[in-house]
């Protein structure tokens, strides 16, 4: 059995894939439900509060999902990714792996399988959100949804690369997960600087919201920077892990 099959089986048998699909699937369901029924729910509690709510639109069904996916979904990805990429957390297992394969042979399957699982779970939730929005509210332009989803998926691969980078500095799984989330939040906060914002990977998160509301595609700088940083972090992580003593 090679390390690719082993990594896939590890993700499957530990049911960590189920965590990702459950989180994204639940929020994919709640997104359109919230957009459709939240005003009615609030009205049943306090009629005077309904007037203060912004008018809900079909686009809000997707926006609600993206907002939750960018928070709780990303947190789930961080912990699942940390469990895979921080393989030095278990010294005995790390020694076993390192004496039988190169770091790149160990790291690459874990990175790719984790990123693929995160992207698949996100797209699963998006499919639910899109169908739910169409059934409960109105069908949105599928082209904008697909393009926006692919941009978000690229950001998730970047997020896994951040987790891999942090795992090359820190060994413990909880520390890797929490610090990775902290770094991703810090990167997003840099958007407060207008000159920097168009170059940030976090711009890809909100791309789908812009596109489904009729906005123009203006994410080339963010897309190129995200791909470049992902490649650099992957290479640097492998380099760091090669030279780290157990």
Structural class determined from secondary elements: mainly alpha
User: What coarse outline follows from CA principal-axis ratios?
Assistant: globular
Number of helices: 9
The biggest beta sheet reads: none
Task: Give me the count of strands.
Answer: 0
Global mean pLDDT: 91
Helix content: over 70%
Task: Walk me through what this model shows.
The structure is a single chain. The protein has 246 residues and is an all-alpha fold. The chain has one domain. Helix content is 74%, strand content 0%. It has nine helices and no strands. Helix 3 (59-85) packs across helix 7 and helix 6 (142-167) crosses helix 7. The longest helix has 34 residues, at 103-136. It starts with a helix and ends with a helix.
Highlighted features:
single chain, mainly alpha
Compact summary:
The chain has 246 residues and is mainly alpha-helical.
Element layout with pairings:
Elements lengths: L2 H11 L2 H30 L13 H27 L5 H8 L4 H34 L5 H26 L5 H17 L17 H6 L7 H23 L4
């Amino acid at each position: 059995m090679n390390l690719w099959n082993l990594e896939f089986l590890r993700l499957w048998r530990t049911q960590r894939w189920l965590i990702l699909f459950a989180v994204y699937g639940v929020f994919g369901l709640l997104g359109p439900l919230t957009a459709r029924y939240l005003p009615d729910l609030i009205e049943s509690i306090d009629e005077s509060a309904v007037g203060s709510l912004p008018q809900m639109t079909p686009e809000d069904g997707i926006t609600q999902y993206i907002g939750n996916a960018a928070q709780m979904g990303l947190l789930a990805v961080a912990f699942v990714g940390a469990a895979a990429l921080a393989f030095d957390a278990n010294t005995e297992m790390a020694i076993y792996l390192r004496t039988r394969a190169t770091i790149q042979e160990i790291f690459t399957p874990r990175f790719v399988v984790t990123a693929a699982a995160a992207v698949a779970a996100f797209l699963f939730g998006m499919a639910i959100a899109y169908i739910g929005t169409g059934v409960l509210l109105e069908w949105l332009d599928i082209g904008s949804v697909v393009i926006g989803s692919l941009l978000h998926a690229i950001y998730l691969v970047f997020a896994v690369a951040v987790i891999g980078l942090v795992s090359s500095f820190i060994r413990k799984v909880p520390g890797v997960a929490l610090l990775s989330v902290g770094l991703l939040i810090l990167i997003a906060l840099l958007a407060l600087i207008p000159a920097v914002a168009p170059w940030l990977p976090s711009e890809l998160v909100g791309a789908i919201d812009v596109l489904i509301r009729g906005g123009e595609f203006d994410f080339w700088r963010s897309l190129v920077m995200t791909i470049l940083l992902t490649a650099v972090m992957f290479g640097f992580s492998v380099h760091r892990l090669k030279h780290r003593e157990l």
